[in-house]
Design goal:
Blueprint lengths: L1 E2 L4 H14 L2 E4 L6 E2 L14 H6 L3 H4 L3 E2 L3 H10 L4 E7 L2 H9 L6 E5 L8 H12 L2 H5 L1 E5 L2 H9 L3 E4 L6
Parallel strand pairs: 1-8, 2-5, 2-7, 5-6, 7-8
Antiparallel strand pairs: 3-4
């Protein structure tokens, strides 16, 4: 596992590495290719207040989510027809799906929270989604790109490669 800053030059290098290695990337959304910090409110322990976040997931607010440099990787993979996935702690509401479509991103799959009552911590949510969808053999050829170091460590624990892309906006 290594750390990569979210810059345009690093996004270009990551794209080249993905193409050369034929690894299947799995991208986190917030903090990796989308910046939704304008609608994120944290609890006293630093965790995301999911109820407030969901209240702020209206079309008007989601449209204001900003692009981060790594979005160029997903857009290029889409254009090239190379498989990739999104694994996010968001609920995949219509507004988020519309934002992804508008950015010309077409993942093979999107793994997300299972409704409003799903309050699992990110690393539990993501590893459960990944293990239930992919075989151990497939996971060994996949790489999680995530801004949360705990998620990257959890991905490594299930046999994946991982790249931590730190984000200070949460």
């Amino acid at each position: 596992m290594f750390t990569l800053q979210n810059t345009t030059s690093n996004a270009t290098a990551l794209l080249s590495g993905i193409i050369a290695s034929k690894v299947v990337p799995v991208f986190d959304m917030d903090g990796v290719f989308a910046d939704a910090s304008h609608r994120q409110i944290c609890n006293a322990d630093g965790s995301l207040n999911l109820d407030k976040y969901r209240e702020m997931s209206t079309a008007e607010h989601v449209k204001k989510d900003a692009e981060l440099p790594m979005i160029k990787v997903l857009q290029a993979l889409t254009r090239l027809g190379i498989e990739f996935h999104i694994c996010t702690a968001r609920i995949m509401c219509d507004n988020t799906a519309s934002w992804i479509d508008a950015k010309k991103i077409a993942p093979k799959s999107v793994m997300a929270r299972c409704g409003d009552h799903d309050s699992r911590r990110d690393h539990k949510l993501k590893t459960t989604n990944l293990i239930s969808r992919f075989s151990h053999f497939q996971l060994k050829n996949m790489m999680l790109i995530d801004d949360n170091l705990d998620n990257c460590k959890a991905a490594k624990a299930i046999g994946m490669k991982a790249i931590n892309v730190p984000f200070v906006g949460h």
